[in-house]
Specification:
The chain is mostly helical. Helices cover 83% and strands 0% of the residues. The protein contains two helices and no strands. It is elongated, with a radius of gyration of 16 Å.
């Protein structure tokens, strides 16, 4: 992948990461209102969010590698 493709992919991953923030907040809010939070669904969303964070960090390192000084 070239840098332009990596940046496009990075933007998509960041957008999905933000969407998961919204979904987690909504699930938490719904749980607060009805006294029940779907723990399994919450765990899945958080696991997906963490995987996206790792992928985002990986692509950022590909675009701008750290100095090995």
């Amino acid at each position: 992948m070239n840098e332009q493709e990596l940046r496009k992919r990075l933007a998509l991953l960041r957008s999905e990461h933000r969407d998961l923030d919204v979904a987690i907040a909504a699930l938490t809010e719904a749980g607060d209102q009805n006294g029940f939070t779907d723990q399994l669904q919450m765990a899945r969303l958080k696991k997906r969010k963490l995987a996206l964070k790792d992928r985002i960090a990986y692509i950022e390192r590909m675009i701008d590698p750290p100095d090995l000084a």
